[in-house]
Amino acid sequence: MKKIETLTVEQVAIMRDVAREWIERESTWRPVNVGAVANAIPLLYRNMTVPRAIIVASSPWHANKIANVHDNVRNNVRNNVVNNVYDNVADNVRNNV
């Protein structure tokens, strides 16, 4: 796909309307039909492992917060396992071999 370097006169003319449309879409979220989402998940993950949990966020902002918390928890757990379990096992092996 070719990189867009400049906009046409027509594109510039409709920029404000397009921006307004997407800002309005962003600010007018409706409740999610969780049942429909749950039914669609196996279709989306066809031939792959289906996630064990489905987290439904109330907005893109909330989804971002959930993702950040998830990443932080995963990283903290991984670091604790590496720093504590691995070090203890390595010390025990060194001391007993």
Instruction: Indicate the proportion of strand residues.
Output: under 5%
Number of helices: 3
The average pLDDT is: 84
Count of β-strands: 0
Please bin the fraction of helical residues: 55-70%
Low-confidence stretches: none
SSE pattern: HHH
User: Structural class from helices and strands?
Assistant: mainly alpha
Rg over C-alpha atoms, rounded to the nearest angstrom? 24 Å
Net shape: elongated
Q: Could you give a short account of the major beta sheet?
A: none
Cα distance, first to last residue? 60 Å
Oligomeric organization of the protein chains: single chain
Provide a short characterization of the protein structure.
With 97 residues, the protein is mainly α. The chain has helices spanning 9-27, 34-44, 60-96.
Keywords:
97 residues; mainly alpha; elongated
Overview of this protein structure:
69% of the residues lie in helices and 0% in strands. It has helices spanning 9-27, 34-44, 60-96. With 97 residues, the chain is mainly α. The chain contains 3 helices and no strands. The mean pLDDT is 84.
